[in-house]
Amino acid sequence: MRRFLADALLVLMLVSLVTYITEPKEKKEIDQKIAEFEDDVARHDRAQQKVEDTRLNEIHENGAARLAQSSSEAVIDLMHGSVDVLSQFFMGFQR
Question: What is the pTM of this model?
Fold first, then answer.
């Protein structure tokens, strides 16, 4: 049991040491990027896009969407027409 605890403690120390050694490099890079951005803003320079080949894809409406839209419009027109016919029919009985 003592051997297990000693091994666990040594592994924990090793992981902590590796984490401590690798952490400052990443933090310096992030701090440098933040400082660079703040300098650009202070000089009122436009921040340049790092990725040059980005653009929005053109949107093409597919056949299924056109079919759904046209069938939806047909159902709506049919409903309006049937409601008009029924309302005229019942209005005829009231006169």
Answer: 0.35
pLDDT tens-digit series, residues 25-84: 666 678 888 888 888 777 775 656 665 555 565 566 788 888 888 999 999 999 999 999
- Residue matched to tokens 């000089």: 43
Rounded to whole angstroms, what are the CA distances from 14 to 6, 19, 61, 90?
A: 12, 9, 57, 88
The alpha carbon of residue 68 and the mean position of all alpha carbons in its chain are separated, in whole angstroms, by 26
Q: Which amino acid is at 38?
A: E
The helix (run of H) or strand (run of E) holding residue 5 is helix 2-42
Helix ranges restricted to H, 43-62: none
Greater model confidence, 63 or 9: 9
Domain layout of the chain by residue ranges: 1-45, 64-95
Collapse the DSSP code of 61 into the 3-class scheme (helix H, G, I; strand E, B; otherwise coil) and give the result.
coil
The closest alpha carbon to 89, from 81, 73, 78, belongs to 81
Q: Which residue has the tokens 């653009």?
A: 55
